[in-house]
Amino acid sequence: MAERRPDTIAAIATAPGRGGVGIVRISGTGLSDLATRLNGGTLPTPRYAHFRPFLDEDGQMIDEGLLLYFPAPHSFTGEDVIELQGHGGPVVLQLVLERCLALGARLAEPGEFTQRAFLNDKLDLAQAEAVADLIEASTTAAARSAVRSLSGAFSGAIHDIQDQLITLRMLVEATLDFPEEEIDFLESARAIPRMEAIRTALADLIDRSRQGAIMREGLHVVLVGQPNVGKSSLLNQLAGEERAIVTDIAGTTRDALKETIQIAGIPLHIVDTAGLRDTGDAVERIGIERTWKEIERADVILRLVDARTGLTAADHEIDQRLPAGIPRITVSNKCDLVGHVGEAHESPEHPVHIRLSAKTGEGVHLLRDQLLAVAGWHPHAEDTYLARKRHLTALDHALDHVVAALSRTDALELMAEELRRAHEALGDIVGEFTPDDLLGEIFSRFCIGK
Ligand code: GDP
Ligand code: ZN
Predict the structure, then answer these.
(1) How far is the CA of 227 from the centre of ligand 2 (A)?
(2) Domain edges within the chain
(3) Does 375 score more than 80 pLDDT?
(4) Is 140 annotated as a binding residue?
(5) How many CA within 13 A on the CB side of residue 412?
(6) Ramachandran region, residue 190 (left: φ > 0; alpha: ψ -120 to 50; beta: rest)
(7) Any known ligand binding at 17?
(8) Is the CB of 359 under 6 A from ligand 1?
(9) Which of 31, 210, 234, 310 lies 20 to 30 Å from 220, alpha-carbon distance?
């Protein structure tokens, strides 16, 4: 059978626009010829920076800059890689890229370099995703967390648990051949403490990953309250700048149904339910339907009441339509008009109740802290993982199967099956059993040249 050679791909790796330096990257097999022809006949020394002209087919100089040649397998993709660091202008970069295409490369798809790195075992799937997350990171904390995943800390934690599972599975499966020893096995192999250790490790990893998912995807907050109670004013206070429109006329928040602000680097997607009134207007109804969809996936419900009146009948009516089981915070606003500003007290009916003034800002810091805490945010300073929903789902699956295994001490065969499935769920995260279409979907969201 003929050896299947993946084709050669090329792309501009630097951001569009003008910059001091612009980079064209090429990856493929057997690129020494291409490297030689590009710079006029010299084969570059591997992994050395050469200052060279980049030539067109007539030997005319397109640009000059650094040429780097990384022969397989010691490169980002694991293939031969050439990097051309020229001047960062869109036209000159396009000319360099076109020259590479003329020499037999084709334009890379989004994420294709990283995908090749994954296929050549340079990165596992969680690390490959961290490449995209690092590029997209919008806060310092997110960038730190992404780079830790990229360096393999998250994958390492997964592999540790997988190793424990492998040991246990070998013990269980070996015992399956000797049914009369089942009872002794649980004792002598310390199967139960082993499973409990795995369960604890998974729960810890899930916690850290959930923090990371909050960091990455933010929290969904629903703001409930009658017109004029001070929702827009509170949003402004939380955002720390004049963002929403504050007016004395009820119903002006109608078009600003969703707003994203940041607290301590965490994006908060705040949906204002002011628009949730009965209406005959078709366009408005579509907006209301969308709002309800948002509400269903809320992490926190923020109920705003006027401190002078407390909860009204209209508040109770909306209350009954809100999904149960989502944590709530009751905020008494306009406390500057009645006193008692800034006190937070708890009662069984309103577990978290904060009195504040959106006008003066007093007491708002209490809400800031509570909002994150109520949603389950308690950052491990240095060791959160910037996990994706996909990772959390897989981790939850793995934990479910380990818990199920623990309840199967009476039937080793079923226990073995649960452990196998826990192992498989973890394999999904690092890409061991991940189907091609999911891989395609993950990499297609990368930018071109990465
Ligand atoms: P929304 O309709 O719920 O968004 O309410 P707004 O934020 O637009 O506020 C309605 C009115 O209440 C405005 O005149 C605000 O200045 C006023 N207001 C909002 N919060 C406070 C507060 O804490 N104290 C006082 N005294 N007035 C407030
Ligand atoms: Zn408003």
Answers:
(1) 7
(2) 9-124, 135-214+388-430, 218-375
(3) no
(4) no
(5) 22
(6) left
(7) no
(8) yes
(9) 310
Rounded mean pLDDT of 424-442? 84
Task: Of 149-163, 237-251, 290-304, 402-416, give the lowest mean pLDDT range.
Answer: 237-251
Q: pLDDT band for 285, please (50, 70, 90 cuts).
A: confident
From atom 17 of ligand 1, which residue's Cα is the shortest distance away? 230
| Euclidean distance between CA atoms 195 and 403, whole angstroms | 8
Dist. CA 230 → ligand 1 center (Å): 4
What are the structure tokens assigned to 427, written together?
């394999």
Decide which of 1.20.120.430, 1.20.1250.20, 3.40.50.2300, 1.10.10.60 is the CATH code for 135-214+388-430. 1.20.120.430
In order of 170, 194, 218, 362, the CA distances from 420 in angstroms are: 10, 15, 33, 55
- The atom of ligand 1 lying closest to the CA of 358 is 23
The CATH number of 218-375, from 3.40.50.300, 3.20.20.140, 3.60.21.10, 3.30.830.10, is 3.40.50.300
Annotated binding residue at 248? yes
CATH of the domain spanning 9-124, picked from 2.60.120.380, 3.30.1360.120, 3.40.50.1400, 3.40.50.2300 = 3.30.1360.120
Q: Is 237 in the pocket of ligand 1 (CB under 6 A)?
A: no
Q: Could you tell me the two tokens for 102?
A: 């003329």
